[in-house]
Each structure stands twice: as structure tokens, then as C-alpha cells.
Amino acid sequence: MTPPAIRLIIGLGNPGPQYETTRHNAGFWLADHLADDLKAGFSLDKAFSAWVAKGRFDGEAIIVAKPSTFMNRSGQAAGALMRFYKLLPEQVLVLHDELDLMPGQVKLKQGGGHAGHNGLRDIQAAFSSPDFWRLRIGIGHPRTLGLAQDVAAFVLNSPRKDELDGIVQVIDRCRAVAPALLRGEFQQATSQLHEANRA
């Protein structure tokens, strides 16, 4: 049986200009590009507590959203959107920063824990299910990058130039596999993404 294709994409980040360039907003960065690729513009929809962009792919409606709440309340928007559009968790893709992957690395996975990520934790609670898909965008960890910052300060600061270059490359790779995800071709998308991690 073909798995259901992605119909709702949620980028994670914090609202406000002071957070725009921070590592924790990598999910927002990718969401902006995916909306552009779908020729869809964001507008604030207070009913969903999110900026929402509506596009089409192969004749199907695709929603890209960025919660307007802070990261730890991301489930408010995600849950409202999933219920309104009558989607399964398996049709939702969450884009988020990942401490356990270095800049330049990315992983696609379905299900699993939240590994202390407050946005994922809140979405999992709102869905009553961990079965949504995640695109984990590597930002590195302060220890592995040789920084003395604690994790909270690290994610709320901007990446250094070499780290940013790696994150930008990942965003381009994610954009390249987005059509496969929107067709439900998860195996193809996974192998294409993970192959480049080894390159």
C-alpha cells in the first residue's frame, strides 16, 4: 500500500525579528523556500495561530505553515491545521533544527521521540501521536563545535558563516526532494538526502 503523501508542512521557529537569523529558526527558513517553490505567499491566520501559505502540487492542495506562537507552543497551530484539513499525522511534515546533526547534514524520519526539542514535544502532544514525518536540519551542538555556550544560548544565536553555508546547502537539498515527499515517495527522498550526507 502506498503511504499517504505529505499535505501539511510545518516549519518550526520563534516569531519576531530578534529570532529571524537564529539557529532555532532553521525550520522557518526552509518553510519560506518551500512556499516560494509552490508559488504560495504567507498570510497570518489567527484561527490557526500561524502564518499560512496555500499552494498546489499535481492538483492537490498543500499547506505550508509557520506557527505564530513561540516554539514550545507549536502544537497549537499544528493541531488546529491537522484537524481543520482532516489529515492524518502521517500526512504532516515538520521542519526543525537538530542538535545531533552537524551543519550540512539532514535526516528524514517518521515517528520517534522528541529528544528534548520543545516544538516536537508540543506537536506530539497535540497530535496524540508521534507518527508525523520530520526533516531534521543539522545545526550542530555547542560541544561538537567547540563552543562554550549552553544549548539554550546556542540555539538562540545566529550560526557562524561556515555553519550557515552547511545549513543553506541542506535547505537546497530538502527543496530538491520536496516533490518526492509530496508524491509520497519517501524511500526515494530518504536515499537522495542521506546519500548526500555521506558525500
Automatic annotation (TrEMBL):
Residues binding tRNA, per UniProt: 19, 70, 72, 118
Listed name of the protein: Peptidyl-tRNA hydrolase
Reactions catalysed: an N-acyl-L-alpha-aminoacyl-tRNA + H2O = an N-acyl-L-amino acid + a tRNA + H(+)
Subcellular location: Cytoplasm
Pfam families recorded: Pept_tRNA_hydro
GO process annotations (BP): protein quality control for misfolded or incompletely synthesized proteins; rescue of stalled ribosome
Cited SUPFAM superfamilies: Peptidyl-tRNA hydrolase-like
UniProt superkingdom: Bacteria
Molecular functions per Gene Ontology: peptidyl-tRNA hydrolase activity; tRNA binding
Keywords, sorted A to Z: Cytoplasm, Hydrolase, RNA-binding, tRNA-binding
Keyword Membrane appears in the UniProt entry: no
